[in-house]
Amino acid sequence: MGQREQDGGASAHRLVLALPSLMIIAGVVFDLLTPSEYTASPLFAAAPLIAAPFFSFLATLLTGIAAVVSVLGLHVYNGTLTLTPANTELFTVVTVAGLALFINRVVRLSGRRLASARDIAETAQRAVLPTPADRIGGLQIAARYEAAQADAFIGGDLFAVQDTPHGVRLVVGDVRGKGMGAVEAVAVVIGAFREAAEQERSIEGVAGRLERALTREGTRRGSLDVFEGFTTAVLAEIPRGAGVVRVVNRGHPEPLVLHADGDLDKLEPTEHALPLGMGDLGTLPDLADEYPLPAGATLLLYTDGVTEARNADGTFYNPVERLGGRLFAGPEELLDAIVDDVRLHTGGGPNDDMALLAVSRPLDGQPERRRTVGVIEGEQEDTGQYRV
User: What is the predicted pLDDT for the residue at 210?
Assistant: First the structure.
């Protein structure tokens, strides 16, 4: 969010907070400057109603009291307190003030329930998708989940990293569907991956185990639509001591390798395979492709929430064009740059949930964490600072 948007939001917030007081003041001024047949009761009645959803119960009560006292004081000042219109006006403002207190309580209760639901959703996501450690098997790791909907935590995107006797194995995937049904499918995939990553001798074997797990769960829960769908996924294996990565791609966006000199490789599969859960439509065995992953390079895996993010003209976000030729301080900074760049491209946020996983093979002697910098173009100004 830009500074101008932040300033605009802060100004609007201050105006909302001041509006009840301004309406009471405007009502008093209007009543004093106009003939007695004109009334400012709508302004006095509106003040506590405006305060109700934004103020505390005490502040709403005080606003209602101020409105009632203002009406009462004006009629005493004008000598009209004993007249029927005055009593009707006073009764109306008192009634509306009471209604405002009721609205305030309802809003506060709903807010607490929403906060509780949000906490439950966040806890569920953290249980299903725990954030991996910063360093696993000698590799630097960063993971990110960005929900398209504000305050939403649960979705169908997934990631996992596991250190195994066969090297560091990882998966990024996207389950068809949303809500708790998608989370159930995510839990099945993650659970099967955790077990298979330890037991299977090859990354192809891990992919086969995930396929069988989804098929088995779909048979057991045939009524659940999410298990009648599919899961796109990329599985990768980074053996110890070898500057390579083995990848099995099951219908997922191709991973990228960002090199230390700014070069970028798109890891396109030799043979395109069906997503997980669609084994009935094809029987081709999984085939792992091997790609270079030298020291200083970063493997980037992501879901289609990145590549399907569109701007106002309908142009899709292209990570190859946006990231090629750029350097990053580490995997965390890379993910920060992507999330910010997608937000800039779309003018607000992603159109779909995004899961991102970045794995860097550090250079010899490289410290655990380097100085945090942004995306840099590789040219230096006279000040000696990199140009962002």
Answer: 92
Q: What amino acid occupies position 171?
A: V
Task: Write the single-letter amino acid at 122.
Answer: E
Backbone angles phi, psi at 292, to 5 degrees: -70, 140
For the stretch 262-285, pLDDT in tens is: 999 999 999 888 888 876 666 667
* Cα–Cα distance measured from residue 70 to residue 62, given in angstroms and rounded to the nearest whole number: 12
| Cα-trace Rg, the chain | 30
Give how far Cα 117 sits from Cα of 120, 122, 148, 154, Å: 5, 9, 18, 11
Q: What is the pLDDT of residue 283?
A: 60
Band of residue 383 on the pLDDT scale cut at 50, 70, 90: very low
Question: Rounded to 5 degrees, what are φ and ψ at 304?
Answer: -75, -5
Residue for token digits 């000598």? Answer: 79
DSSP state of 6: H
CB 314 within 8 A of CB 306: no
Could you give the CA distance from residue 271 to residue 201 in angstroms, rounded to a whole number?
21
- With beta carbons less than 8 A apart as the criterion, state whether 332 and 300 touch: no
The two beta strands, 135-136 and 139-146, are antiparallel
Cβ count near 286 (within 10 Å) = 19
Q: What residues contact residue 303 under an 8 Å CB cut-off, 6+ apart? A: 157, 172, 173, 174, 232, 252, 253, 352, 353, 354, 355, 356
Query: What is the longest distance spanned by two Cα atoms in the chain?
Result: 94
CA atoms within 13 A on the CB side of 254: 17
Question: Of 160, 164, 280, nearest to 211 (Cα)?
Answer: 280
Residue 118 tokens, joined: 């949000």
d(CA 17, CA 51): 8
3-class DSSP state of 234: strand
In 3D, which of 266, 268, 233 has the Cα closest to residue 251? Answer: 233
Facing residues of 299 across strands? 257, 359
**386/373 Cα distance (integer angstroms):** 9
Q: Other CB atoms closer than 10 Å to residue 150's CB: what's the count?
A: 6
Q: How far is CA 287 from the centre of its chain?
A: 33
Q: Which helix (H) or strand (E) holds 99?
A: helix 84-128
Cα–Cα distances (Å) from 284 to 177, 201, 202, 214, in that order, read 26, 19, 16, 17
